[in-house]
């Protein structure tokens, strides 16, 4: 699958496969079966591998499968500690993958060997993201955010989030300059903005119903939030931390990913088996791509150019 156009990888939870979208044409060019229900997805910075977090019901465990992006084949699978595996993220240097594992510790996988090399105590973990320098992992749970020192692989601090009526700590994204983290707060219908210098909440942004996924554009100017309950995406101006637009998408959006050039945002619509492609210049849906059953997570990579 070598080429110059980015490819988006979509974890289809109920059809137990991953759809590969050519973002130049917004068409599915491959479908890769996996051993269970994929729930999280992350790509290495060099664009060569895709790490897929899977709930494997047959084995009653969590798995992480590694996909070779050159030929879209699974080249390794590693067991982790919990069937209720969650989000997965790759360190900025590409050397490790951190896996959220609900009631069990966060698992750390060495991407050179594809083996678990460490576990970090953290209960009810859901999703996670790294600071741009890779020194800290921000891990969401039902009470807020835990900050992990990735050098010592220990919890550094916790950031509590006010829980007024429901679930907090669904998804998280960090701005490219590392100064702010955006945390979606589930049933509370808002996003907490965390000042990473002080690890405190600096603002709260009201969005749509049941926000889940969130992504920040490469220029750091906007955050896109998937509102699962209102079938739309809120666009937040990161300079003012105020909503600037709302984009209607498909039913029950879950995950958000931005293209490397920042021109498009990809949103999984879990109830329709589709991905909405948002044009960030106009904040309108430019295309809708049919994928598998219950698309949940999405990641975008930029394969290496063809060598002639």
CATH architecture: 7 Propeller
- Estimate percent helicity: under 10%
CATH class: Mainly Beta
Give Rg in angstroms. Answer: 18 Å
CATH topology: Methylamine Dehydrogenase, Chain H
Summarize, please.
0% of the residues lie in helices and 54% in strands. It has 308 residues and is mainly β.
Characterization of this structure:
The protein has 308 residues and is mostly beta strands. It has a single domain (7-301), classed as YVTN repeat-like/Quinoprotein amine dehydrogenase (Methylamine Dehydrogenase, Chain H, 7 Propeller). Helix content is 0%, strand content 54%. It is built from no helices and 28 strands. The chain has strands spanning 7-12, 17-22, 27-33, 37-43, 49-56, 61-68, 73-80, 88-90, 96-99, 106-110, 115-120, 128-130, 136-140, 144-149, 154-160, 172-174, 180-184, 190-195, 200-206, 211-216, 222-227, 232-237, 242-248, 253-258, 264-269, 274-279, 284-290, 295-301. The strands form 7 sheets. The chain has a 4-stranded antiparallel β-sheet with strand order 3-2-1-28, with no helix packed on it. A 4-stranded antiparallel β-sheet has the order 4-5-6-7, with no helix packed on it.
Which features characterize this protein?
308 residues, mainly beta, four-stranded antiparallel sheet, 54% strand
């Amino acid at each position: 699958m070598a080429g110059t156009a980015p490819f988006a990888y979509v974890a289809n939870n109920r059809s137990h496969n991953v759809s590969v979208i050519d973002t130049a044409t917004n068409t599915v060019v491959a479908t890769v079966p996996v051993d269970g229900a994929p729930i999280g997805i992350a790509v290495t910075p060099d664009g060569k591998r895709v790490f897929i977090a899977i709930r494997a019901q047959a084995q009653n465990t969590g798995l992480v499968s590694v996909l070779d992006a050159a030929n879209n084949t699974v080249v390794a699978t590693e067991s982790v500690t919990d069937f209720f595996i969650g989000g997965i993220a790759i360190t900025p240097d590409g050397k490790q993958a951190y896996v959220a594992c609900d009631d069990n510790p966060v698992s750390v996988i060495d991407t050179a060997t594809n083996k678990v090399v460490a576990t970090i105590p953290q209960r009810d973990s859901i999703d996670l993201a790294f600071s741009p320098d890779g020194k800290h992992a921000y891990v969401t749970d039902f009470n807020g955010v835990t900050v992990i020192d990735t050098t010592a692989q220990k919890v550094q601090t916790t950031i509590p989030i006010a829980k007024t009526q429901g679930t907090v700590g669904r998804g998280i994204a960090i701005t490219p300059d590392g100064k702010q983290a955006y945390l979606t707060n589930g049933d509370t219908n808002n996003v907490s903005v965390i000042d990473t210098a002080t690890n405190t909440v600096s603002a709260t942004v009201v969005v749509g119903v049941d926000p889940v996924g969130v992504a920040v554009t490469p220029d750091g100017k906007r955050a896109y939030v998937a509102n699962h309950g209102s079938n739309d995406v809120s666009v937040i101006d990161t300079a003012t931390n105020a909503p600037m637009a709302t984009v209607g998408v498909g039913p029950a959006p879950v995950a958000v990913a931005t293209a490397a050039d920042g021109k498009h945002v990809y949103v999984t619509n879990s109830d329709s088996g589709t991905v909405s492609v948002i044009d960030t210049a106009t904040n309108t849906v430019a295309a809708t791509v049919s994928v598998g059953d219950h698309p949940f997570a999405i990641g975008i990579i930029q394969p290496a150019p063809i060598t002639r």
